[in-house]
Amino acid sequence: MCGIAGFIGCGSREVLEKMTRALMHRGPDAEGFFIDEKKGVYFGHRRLAIIDLVDGAQPMITMDRDLVIVFNGEIYNHRELRAELIIKGYHFQTNHSDTEVLLHAFREWGEGMLEKLNGMWAFAIYDNRNHSVFLARDRFGKKPLYYFQRSGGDGVFGFSSELSSLLHHPQTPRNESILALKKHFAYGYIPAPHSLIEGIFKLPAGHFGKLDLQSGTFQVQRYWEYRLEPSQPDLPADGGKLWCEELIELLDRAVKRRLISDVPVGVFLSGGIDSSAIAAFASRHLPVGQLQTFSIGFTDPSFDELPFARQMALHLGSTHHEEILDLERALHLLPELLNHLDEPIADSSLLPTWLLSRFARSHVTVALGGDGGDELFAGYDPFKALKAAELYSKIVPRALHPALLFLAAHLPVSHRNISLDFKIKRTLRGLSFPQSFWMPVWMGPLNIQEIDSFFGDKNNPEEIYSEAIEAWDSAGSGASSVDRALQFFTRLYLQDDILAKLDRTSMQHSLEVRSPFLDIEVVDFARRLPHTVKLRGGVTKWILKKGLESLLPHDIIYRRKKGFGMPIGNWFLNGALKSVEPPAAGAKIFFHERLQSHQSGKSDERLFLWAQLLLSSSSRAARC
Prior knowledge:
The chain has about 625 residues and is an alpha+beta fold. The chain is built from 25 helices and 17 strands.
């Protein structure tokens, strides 16, 4: 796991060193550079040594010096690919480096190599033979990759793992993207390919890009997308027994792959079904007494999951580590997190994930997590709301919607975790919009009318929610609302919220986090399952829960979902946590109205206030 940076065109070694050293937290173990001044190629790398500690230094160059790579990630099937390439006549200089496997795989299969990889990656390969640079990002975007291009006499193409690193190049754009800011408030994150800065882009998940050094053209192309392709409409005659067995076998294999490391490995354990499953599978493949688990708790019992994590750790016999995040500690740690965030992510689990990563890094260099289970197997509360939402849309005249929203707004406000009034108000506000808008409106800080008021202009909702519409429609005509929601969560929310949050918080502490649920074999299996076994009889993740019944305690599998948030609603209510007012006059009025309403207990504005706080910190960092 590492940080990569580079540029092609105008610049200097000094610029490259600044860009690369801005990524030191991603790779504290070593740095390396490849520079070809005549051709204007500058590659930099910061290394977090995980695999092949002796021979895995980067940038890595083939013996004939035709190919150069900088790589961030892990390829879990690199041993199998290495064996295949050796049969084809390739000779390896390293003992077991997955980076060298990528170099030879690119020479053998070109862009077709991406279909063979099982892992997470963002890399750039300089191809001296074909005068080009090839960039690629993994299927779900677990590893980040930003880029920009400027043409003309001082033309340059730059790339990096982080926005703040890219900003060290003097030709990098500096102006904030207004559209990206609006999308931040619509979703709670900035979806790819947008970034906080106008003219800087994220290479989307499942895409590669080719830069022709002679013409200067850069073309982006999709090589993979998550698409549901159920093999049958419902349970087979055996009641799903064989499916359960196959799922358990695939997950077990995925965890085993991700335990391969030359440094210590642990497991994030919340006590929920996903992380508990990963810990249970890990315990099968580690010597007795070597499994280490890590948890974060809260003083607010409605957010605290430590009792379940302790129960699971005791069940597995792991060496368990835990910490408590209270208000005083949160306020102390928050500035450090926000100063290095790069881009805003208005996810309330941001700080606990950051603290969990820092805590785990004091014991291990690699951690396994349960991310991806909710998205693949329909684990979120909005899935359960879909049936009632569709019925509401059919029988309640649209003219009555404003009156019902008004009545719901007068329900007493509770800042408990996933409280009933919060769910009712969020659900009703989404139902005033087309179905393709439901997910972002239910989950986002502001809806389209509120975005209009906050920014003081009239916006096209189809532009603001374009990514959500595309994901919703990608399920195809005739698809169920559950399938459409699955497409939204896997193609959009997972990439730009969950995995972006996980990468930024963990890599600030030089911790590599691996996600077994996103193993390509598990993902392909989940794609073939009908939605009726993911959400069945009102039970979320039904097939996963049935499969795990022989592995986990019943009360862990079927307990109420809490999520991994923190009590920011109460912290804003009592004034302990303070948001930051926006600079524009109209936006200030909107902000203070919402703040006053929240602090008086009239409404719950926690998502907006948190989103504004995160944005103000990220904007300051970008300007610096």
